[in-house]
Design a protein that fits this description.
By secondary structure, this protein is mostly helical. It folds into 3 domains: 2-30 and 289-318; 33-151, Cytochrome Bc1 Complex, Chain D, domain 2; 154-272, Orthogonal Bundle (Cytochrome Bc1 Complex, Chain D, domain 2), CATH 1.10.760.10. The protein has helices at 2-27, 35-49, 78-82, 114-121, 137-150, 170-185, 203-209, 211-220, 230-233, 237-247, 278-318; strands at 194-196, 199-201, 256-257. A hairpin with a 2-residue loop joins strand 1 and strand 2. Helix 2 packs across helix 8. It is extended, with a radius of gyration of 25 Å. The model is unreliable at 20-32, 258-266 and 269-278 (pLDDT under 50). The structure holds heme C (2 copies).
């Protein structure tokens, strides 16, 4: 009887110790989901980040413009109205098919408080600009944090006509690209097909045609995509620009239409299952598997302890 009890206590100690180890390792994991990156991904495509479908029809404010002829889900994205450079009609979307005339968000950056920005997002300022029924409070806050602290002004370094980086350290960009990004995108940027605007593109295409989107996504990530990002890698503003400058030297493809079934708004397809490509993905998968196994073993041990407890209980009743 004594022995069983001692074993029981020992097992409990082991379980508590293992739970402690799990908690400590979880706390030490790199923070890839900080407010700024989360807010940036919401800005990109909030419904993808929140794994919900976009509302039906066009955004109500869409009626205030007629120049941008897109419709449906796209019209609900912050990036479609305010631009990848955050400058709205004052920036890259000042002309062309994306032109709406909607305002730049830069004016706000330092000036408004987080709460004042949130008030622009929950309909307090303009009832038609109300996203509070579509996202939770934390997402609105993350958007505000991103707008206040995450915006980068790259307009000085990107030539508005050629869209090329005016001056950049291409050697630094090449180094960074080849050590981290090439694992998935390939040294020529063509390995990972990118889906956007109903086209299949290489990374060189995106860098050359939409440099601001390239910068936004390589700094802050793409919702639903497992990928190392500049913000987590400790890249400076200039490092991201250098990588852009280098990727702009990579070959562009002749666009191929997206295979049937992929849908018009299919960029980027979230990755589900399968072995993770590249070293970073491997680490993430590895950690996932590790903690998955960990959880299973804890469950198993708890079950075992319960079983022992039952035996102890039965034995003590017998006496
Ligand atoms: C359909 C187009 C559209 C979408 C989508 C949209 N906005 Fe706006 N936004 C506007 C317009 C128009 C204004 C200015 C007038 C107003 O507030 O209605 C504005 C104003 C703002 C302002 C105040 C800026 C200022 O200087 O007045 C902020 C902040 C803002 N938007 C952030 C966002 C964020 C974040 C998202 C994504 C959740 C978003 N917007 C989505 C059209 C849009
Ligand atoms: C683990 C694999 C992986 C690694 C490593 C990786 N990416 Fe990606 N990347 C992806 C996937 C997957 C997509 C989305 C594909 C799609 O569009 O369906 C993507 C998308 C992108 C996009 C968005 C393209 C667009 O259409 O707007 C950019 C920009 C990008 N990656 C840059 C980088 C940079 C810069 C690095 C290095 C820091 C990097 N990636 C490393 C897998 C990776």
């Amino acid at each position: 009887m004594r022995k069983t009890m001692r074993f029981f206590v020992l097992m409990l100690t082991v379980v508590v110790f293992m739970l402690g180890v799990a908690a400590v390792s979880a706390a030490n994991l790199p923070q890839s989901d900080d407010d700024i990156s989360a807010g940036a991904q919401l800005y990109d495509k909030w419904y993808a980040r929140l794994s919900v479908s976009a509302p039906e029809g066009n955004h109500p404010l869409w009626e205030r413009q007629t120049s941008n002829t897109r419709s449906g889900a796209e019209t609900w994205r912050c990036a479609e109205c305010h631009g990848w450079d955050y400058q709205g009609a004052a920036g890259a979307y000042g002309s062309g098919s994306h032109y709406t005339g909607f305002p730049s968000l830069f004016v706000l950056a330092g000036r408004l408080s987080e709460q004042e920005i949130i008030d622009h997002l929950n309909g307090k300022i303009d009832p038609l600009h109300d996203f509070s029924g579509l996202m939770d409070d934390n997402s609105l806050r993350q958007l505000a944090v991103f707008l206040k602290e995450g915006l980068v002004d790259d307009s000085e370094i990107i030539d508005p006509v050629s869209l090329k980086v005016r001056s950049g350290n291409v050697e630094n960009g090449k180094n960074r690209f080849e050590t981290v990004c090439a694992a998935c995108h390939g040294v020529d940027g063509k390995t990972q097909a990118l889906h956007s605007d109903a086209l299949e593109q290489s990374l060189g295409d995106v860098a050359s045609r939409d440099p601001y989107r390239f910068l936004h996504r390589s700094r802050f990530g793409v919702a639903g995509v497992v990928m190392p990002i500049g913000r987590d890698l400790g890249w400076s503003t200039d490092d991201s620009r250098d990588v852009l400058a280098y990727v702009q030297t990579l070959p562009t493809t002749t666009d191929k239409p997206v295979p049937a079934g992929a849908g018009a708004d299919s960029e980027p397809a979230p990755q589900v299952g399968g072995p993770a490509p590249g070293i970073f993905g491997g680490i993430v998968t590895g950690l996932g598997v590790f903690f998955g196994m960990f959880g299973m073993s804890i469950l198993f041990i708890l079950g075992f302890v319960a079983f022992l407890g039952a035996i102890v209980f039965i034995l003590s009743k017998r006496k």
